[in-house]
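Obj.: predict assembly geometry.
Materials: sequence records (below).
Method: joint structure prediction, all chains together.
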Amino acid sequence: MLPLASETAPDTIVTPEPPPLDRRPRGTSAILDPRQLVEAFPEAVRKLHPRLMVRNPVMFVVEVGSLLTTLSAVLEPSWFAWLISGWLWLTVVFANLAEAVAEGRGKAQAESLRRARTGTTARRLRSWRIGLERYEEERVPAEHLQMQDFVVVEAGETIPGDGDVVEGIAAVDESAITGESAPVVREAGGDRCAVTGGTKVLSDRIVVRITSKPGRTFIDRMIALVEGAERKKTPNEIALNLLLASLTVVFILSVVTLQPFAIYAGAEQSTPVLVALLVALIPTTIGALLSAIGIAGMDRLVQRNVLAMSGRAVEAAGDVDTLLLDKTGTITFGNRQAVRFLPAPGVPEMQLAEGAQLSSLADETPEGRSVVVLAKRYGLRERAEGELGRLEFVPFSAQTRMSGVDLNQPGAWTVQVRKGAASAISVWVYERGGLVAGEVLEAADLIAANGGTPLLVAVHDRYGARVLGVVQLKDVVKDGIRERFAELRRMGIRTVMVTGDNPLTAKAIAEEAGVDDFLAEATPEDKLELIKREQAAGKMVAMTGDGTNDAPALAQADVGVAMNTGTSAAKEAGNMVDLDSNPTKLIEIVRIGKQLLITRGALTTFSIANDVAKYFAIIPAMFGHAYPGLRDLNIMALHSPTSAITSAVIFNALIIIGLIPLALRGVRYQPSSAADLLARNLRVFGLGGLVLPFVGIKLIDLLVVQFLV
Ligand SMILES: Nc1ncnc2c1ncn2[C@@H]1O[C@H](COP(=O)(O)OP(=O)(O)OP(=O)(O)O)[C@@H](O)[C@H]1O
Ligand SMILES: [K+]
Ligand SMILES: [Mg+2]
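Observations (raw structure tokens):
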């Protein structure tokens, strides 16, 4: 028997419904539960270690200040010194709490992923090649699998490692990683060949080539990601940290140089007062929340089944101008099926069916397999080995846009059979001295104009080169995509479909899906070039794709989102993976990216604005005695110098706790112009940051006086 792809009978497997476009995030809700704060407390205390604290310059300064104040309280005990040092320590702990709570959210998820990983035994094959019928198997623990090993997995078994399906087709339950219970189809050859270790085969049997190193599997990386183990500061975070650190240095210098003046004026200040002033003035609010904001952004993506491999990608997503999408498998379902044979004039339909079948004998793509299935309906039997002579297969490639076979029979002409894109096959026929009938090209154009993909089938034998006819491939645009592209437009993002398919098909699908622009007959290099051109024009480019031919483009894009259904190459190349394989997920990704940037900006504004009020609280308290004129600054009419300073420090600490929910949830984002957004945020967070502390400090002052006087 020939290794006919149809043996695995793809038509017995039902293609599952695609995941709904607007799935609610699973897992923990975004609202802060007080229990989370309590649970994270020990971790927050552990984070007081100076080695960890130095990474956050602002809070490190607060920690050193707390230490100095505590020392001074020990040397010269007073309730004031102890109170201040207590609240300063709390300030540092609150900051750590924000980070610990943000990190804690991924922990539960990591636990369930760990369970999916453990204890699988792999059925490794001693050797594998296309068409091999007899396999020698050995059982090894999944952790021992190396790259390029071949394993066989059958219904009911867990896939032992990440890889590409090289033989067969199966329904796979990926709920262990996606939380989605509907099975998905994974098959050899096409853009849906990647499988993930820890997921389960539900039907049939596949051979998988392992593509990950031991300990570096997708689940391993996912665990590291949700636990934040691989989190690095992004360039933006580093820049902001630098700015905050410089501000801090300026305030340290001004507070330190204040003392000589104070002594001169006869108002020497104690260590707790000086430290309190410093802490009140430096941007502690944003310093405390910065890291939590970044972690929460990544976590929000995980909740939506998107794994971002870097924080930088999340930030870039917030600034995306152009989105490139490939067509097949991204905008359409990608399960292109042969539905009709249209023979060329004078060619019997049976002959076309036979040519199509021959050209697809070793074509393991969904297209190729579906051609074999369709040919079967014409009563074409499978051929016995040797009947056709020696076969040389020409696999499909995105560059040649064709696939086929050469039949070498001893003592006879070599017969070449090809199928592929109309333009590619036409050239192939012309080069061999043949002609392509106008009717054939018209039929192809008609199929294309209706959004289908035409494949020409041609043969070259001793009678010359000629086209046998056209195979019509049908594909369906995913539901709801049009509305989603309209939404992207409102967000100011231009969508461009890039496809290897012909211009007519591309145009039809582009119109149906509602993209802004399209590029047809694009090779992998063209896709890459397009991205480079956009980037050279200063555009931030996102790309979603699934195929190996998308990999170079996914790597070049600022945000490269690989579909989880896609090939390992695509998943390796991108900096995000969408477990739901939903191209319009980019809307959520952009939203989360923007939210991250806005939240960071808003809280920075708030933090700096709210330090102004503390200045008004503390300066009159320090010098009201020496310079009675300064008492006019005491506009809050705070009770006494000590209560004023205490209230400012308490407010400074509490505002951190108060803003943790906002840092984790993110500031709401609504599509609008950048100028409107800025104006709104300045109003809310600038003005709010200015006014709120006056009210807050006054209230705390009233309370403090109740308790302490
Ligand atoms: N198995 C195949 N055998 C022969 N020709 C094929 C096969 N699959 C696709 N083609 C032809 O090659 C062209 C390019 O295919 P390719 O997979 O590169 O792009 P695509 O999947 O159509 O586009 P996209 O980049 O949007 O996924 C197709 O339009 C089709 O005409
Ligand atoms: K402050
Ligand atoms: Mg593709």
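Conclusions so far: Residues 191, 326, 328-329, 547 surround magnesium ion (ligand 3) (CB under 6 Å).
To do: check interface contacts against the pulldown list.
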